[in-house]
Structure prediction request, 413 residues.
Amino acid sequence: MMFQPEIEAMPRPQLEELQLHRLQSTIERLRSRVPAMASRLEGIPAPQSLDDLVNFPLLHKADLRDSYPFGLFAEPRENIRRIHASSGTTGKPTVVGYTEADLGMWADCIARNLIGAGCEPGWMLHNAYGYGLFTGGLGLHTGAERAGISVVPVSGGNTDRQIMLIEDFAPQAICCTPSFALTLAERLGAEARNSSLRVGILGAEPWTSAMRDEIEERLNIVAVNLYGLSEVIGPGVSCETARRDGLVFAEDHFYPEIVHPDTGERLPDGEVGVLVLTSLTKEAFPVLRYWTGDLCSLTHEPDADGRTHARMSAIVGRADDMLIIRGVNVYPSQVEDTLLEIPNVSPHFQLVVSRTGTLDEMQVRLEGEGIDPSAVAAKLKSSLGVTVLVTVEPAGTVPRSEGGKLNRVNDVR
Ligand code: ADP
Prediction:
């Protein structure tokens, strides 16, 4: 099902015409209303085609920090209806703002995601994304209301209480991080498959298809992947449908490009590179060619239901997340993929990277019954190309998600 079929299945030539028109207005808005952007864009001719976008400079997170807090807003402060911010583990957070129209557009995007995932008007959604400055909680909240779905605004944390509410309220859908979905499955135990839940809209952190299989099996749900970032809008930039064949963009609002991580050159469909996003309709905080740092590939083929908007693969890593272990590039998602192929390894694991003298060492802490650490180490060595120390720890000792994003890597170098 589609929430806005006339937009979601719009013929591509018409969609691209709309995108070009909106791109031109976005650039004009930035030039006329945001002095810091006007100087960056000086002398670059207005785009005559979507391909001309490559003439514009990439925008990085550091550029947003330089204008902290409101320096890149394109609307006067009193027209801003909501502020969110990214967690910013170091230093100041990145602050973003929304006008009323921006909030309405965002709600539409999320409503498309929920209906596409198989949720129905009249259903109930257990919303375990964090409420507050983080975009997840409130983003899903207003989108669900827009789609005619009742929201239980639980937010993150307190797993026992969440389980009680799921048992008592019987929601059909849940949204949370994939790691928290696993925590719930673990706590619910044998009962997990019998809960009222049918659909999970999971995201905000990387996860693999092996982890999806595990979540779907344990919770007996269809689990779709939801992607977004606060700088662009929050969750709802792209999301899988119930078919789970790529995350469909809201391409009438966000224009995606894939660029080479080192050269910044635009890459064709199917090639993995950094996702760069341009907002096409945002009023308060338009972004032009924002470097997400997230690695994935694109396809512009319509999906099996007739949606014409571009789709992306799951995020395979972050350009700045790559670990270099003794000169070998390792992404945490590769470790996860390998571990999940091994029977009885619990999906809870942690990577600890340290240095003895000049040598990097990587330890994988995991849990599971009757596991031979040296067999796991051999498997990791063959898939990653680096020697890894594997320790099997007592059940419950590896850090779990309590609802927020889980950091699987502890780099103590
Ligand atoms: P914060 O900065 O507070 O963590 P954001 O929502 O801005 O909050 O974080 C966005 C980042 O989260 C993305 O750039 C991406 O790295 C990650 N992310 C979000 N959704 C997904 C997803 N479905 N798969 C993989 N990574 C994701």
Notes: The chain has a mean pLDDT of 93. The two ends are 49 Å apart (CA to CA). Residues 323-411 form a domain with the GMP Synthetase; Chain A, domain 3 fold (CATH 3.30.300.30). The pocket of adenosine-5'-diphosphate is lined by residues 86-87, 134-135, 203-206, 225-230, 292, 294, 315, 318, 405 (CB under 6 Å).
